[in-house]
Structure formats: structure tokens, C-alpha cells
Amino acid sequence: MPQWPSGGMAVVGSMLGPSESSRGVGPSALGVSWEVQEPRAAACGDGGPRVGRCLHISSRRADSSRASLTRVHRQAYARFYPMLLVKQDGSTIHIRYREPRRVLAMPVDLDALSPDERRARFRKREAQLRGKEEKEPELLDNFDLEQYKQFWTKK
Question: What GO biological process terms does the UniProt entry carry, in alphabetical order (predicted)?
Fold first, then answer.
């Protein structure tokens, strides 16, 4: 059998239907035909099979069905949540993030801003910081000590 330089075989398949040579029991019963080709011929060009599409498969299954048939191969099974990432230019991307949030906005690069925009942002930030002064909460104290004096005096 032909082998790649790394030692693996070149397997080419067609999803268009069974070929003339592979009738009977096997993958063609599923509508898939497989042929072992030379490494040069496996490129669907010179000498390859004369079908519309070629499918290159290794021994390990790496198609869309793999995720539903096997487990996730990682040591930490982290839960990722779908969310919307807003870039600096306003474009959005759907990503998976470790915390459940709806929208995550990327910070603006201050070095890329004009000096006027930068000053306006710093003024806005300072105004927000000044507004966070701690005020003493006003307690409405209508506690009357005489009402409760009976509980700690001895008779």
C-alpha cells in the first residue's frame, strides 16, 4: 500500500455515491466510497479519482461528527458562555467567554486618540471619580431610651 513520507497512508473518498469498483458491503453501503491512492494522486489532480469532490481522511476522525461522538480532549472542562464582543471600531463578534455576560466591550486605545479626544476622556473620568465622595448617611434616630428602661432595671 502507498504511504506518505511520514508513514501514513493516503486515503481519498467521495461523498457523491458508490463508485463502480466498490459495490457491495463496506463504506459504499453508506453512500461513501474510499480508495487508497499514491500520495501524489491524492491531491484530486493528476491521476486522482475522477469524481467531483475528494475527501482526505486520516485514521483519526476529524469531521463534524467527531464532536458529537467523543468527549472534549482537555484536562480542565471549563464552561464557556456565548457572548457578544464589541471591538474598538464598533464591530461585533460572537465569542465564548468564561463568565456569563451579554456584552463585553474592548477598551479604547488612548494612544490612538487625538489629543482633544484624550483630554475629553480624562475630564469625564475625573468628574466620575469626584462624584464618588463618601457621604455620611443620615440616620433617622428616633430611639427613646425610656421606653426600654424597664428591661434592664432590677425590681
Answer: translation
- 56 and 83: one domain? no
- Cα–Cα distances in angstroms (integers) from residue 15 to residues 9, 55, 105, 122, in the given order: 19, 8, 43, 61
What is the amino acid identity at position 17?
G
The secondary structure of residue 108, as a DSSP letter, is P
Which of 97, 23, 32 is CA-nearest to residue 63?
Answer: 32
All 3 cell numbers of residue 115? 489629543
Which element (helix H / strand E) includes 130?
Answer: helix 115-130
Residue 104 lies in a domain: yes
pLDDT in tens, 44-102: 555 555 555 555 555 566 666 555 556 666 666 678 889 999 998 889 999 888 888 99
Q: What is the DSSP letter of 142?
A: -
pTM listed for this prediction: 0.32
Give the SS3 label for residue 42: helix
Cell of 9: 497512508
